[in-house]
Recover the amino acids of this structure.
DNA sequence: TCCCAAAAGTGAAATATTTCATCTTTATAT
DNA sequence: ATATAAAGATGAAATATTTCACTTTTGGGA
């Protein structure tokens, strides 16, 4: 049964982190210009925010919620490149190349997102190199995450990779030892680069060894240091 | 015995691709400023251009040669993130984050490189958003390569990955069906994310099946379409 | 509420990959 | 030229991972 939560007023621009940071760099005129080209949207679990292959005309600001970056190779083969939580800048640097989305971005649970028209935004960037560099650095953080992700994938065995993912989700996405994981086992497998049975088996063993406790979609890390050891050995 | 090749005059700035593109965006004064802060270097096979963990003060322009991006996890575990050929912008966007090199960049064969002082360069970028965006897009190309690389690694078996690497080297690095591969089998394994024996076995089989022909470090792709099929099936 | 489909879970067989032992070839230094 | 170490090569055993067949649980819609 779906929780019929009331639709609250969307966040005001003046309370938005992105807006606050932007106002440090931009003139009042530019800020005003930006405001006129922003609109707010809500996405539900599983809804596509950006679609792989589409021509992207917007940059999205993830104000609240969690999203996955997923690459659809074909109907059978899917792949999760990254999972990130608000606040983040989506689209733009970390996503498109020549205006074609390299991958999709999909909501995991409810998401509040502000959309900015790229053409307008691009003009502002061209006029303001310092501001562009700040955003650039933000995009690079995402790049670093990808590289570390890649490294985990490239030279660890499945146990090590699963440990890495659990630590990553706990520390960087849910920011809690205990979290309600809306991803299916299949999706976790698409993130870890292994079969879904492998995720299930590994979760079982970690449960038996009291390293984690799973209860349906709820997951609690009981022994973080043991998980870190598995990551190192993997 | 090492070939004692004579040191030729380094390329003039006015003939450099980067310089030509830059001059489309920058004022004469900025170009002049840039020129004063550039110096040219030559690297030999195996020499480190940027060292992982170092504080980077320069952006490097790879004018001639091939380099690898390598991540050193520990003495035993190394990993090649990417291999690229000139002309490319190294350092900066695709490499550092908060001035710390995320990975090393090492010469594969002889390389000609121009170094630009970052502090001076950063000032120019801040003054010129349009120029910054152009470089930004260039960096994103590198990002796309990483993602495609990641996808290959994440959901293909070793045969498919090795096929991908051979196609990539042929099409994007050496730009030839036949090339003299200075990488050891161990290094290819570090790029493919598998054991060196696996590379050797797979090369043997591909040789037997007349898909490639290896002769020491020389490698020729005999049947590109078969290699593409292996990539798809992998 | 019940029904159905999707997801979760389990264990065994099949397959892929790594590790190991050993040998040959190649490159480098003396 | 010779010695030595590093790289390349090979096949078999050990290990990791996937696939498969099947059962149980969960969640949403009629």
């Amino acid at each position: 049964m779906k929780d019929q939560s009331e639709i609250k007023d969307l966040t005001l621009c003046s309370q938005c982190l992105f807006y606050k940071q932007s106002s440090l760099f931009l003139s009042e005129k530019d800020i005003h210009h930006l405001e006129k080209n922003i609109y707010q949207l809500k996405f539900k679990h599983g809804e596509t925010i950006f679609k792989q292959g589409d021509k992207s005309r917007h940059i999205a600001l993830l104000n609240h919620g969690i999203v996955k970056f997923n690459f659809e190779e074909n109907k059978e083969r899917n792949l999760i490149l990254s999972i990130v939580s608000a606040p983040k800048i989506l689209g733009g640097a970390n996503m498109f190349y020549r205006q074609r989305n390299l991958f999709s971005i999909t909501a995991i649970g409810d998401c509040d997102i502000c959309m900015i028209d790229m053409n307008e935004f691009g003009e502002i960037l061209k006029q303001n190199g310092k501001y562009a560099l700040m955003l650039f650095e933000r995009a690079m953080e995402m790049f670093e995450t990808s590289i570390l992700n890649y490294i985990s994938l490239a030279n660890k065995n499945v146990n090590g990779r699963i440990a890495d993912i659990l630590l990553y989700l706990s520390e960087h996405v849910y920011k809690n030892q205990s979290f309600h994981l809306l991803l299916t086992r299949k999706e976790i497998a698409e993130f870890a680069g292994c079969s879904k049975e492998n995720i299930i088996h590994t979760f079982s063993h970690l449960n038996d060894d009291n390293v984690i406790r799973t209860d349906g979609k709820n997951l609690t890390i009981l022994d973080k240091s043991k998980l870190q050891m598995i990551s190192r050995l993997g």
Remarks:
- Chain A touches chain B through 35 residues (CB under 8 Å).
- The CA atoms of residues 58 and 117 of chain A lie 5 Å apart.
- Chain A has two domains: 13-152, 157-233.
- Confidence is low (pLDDT under 50) at residues 1-9 of chain A.
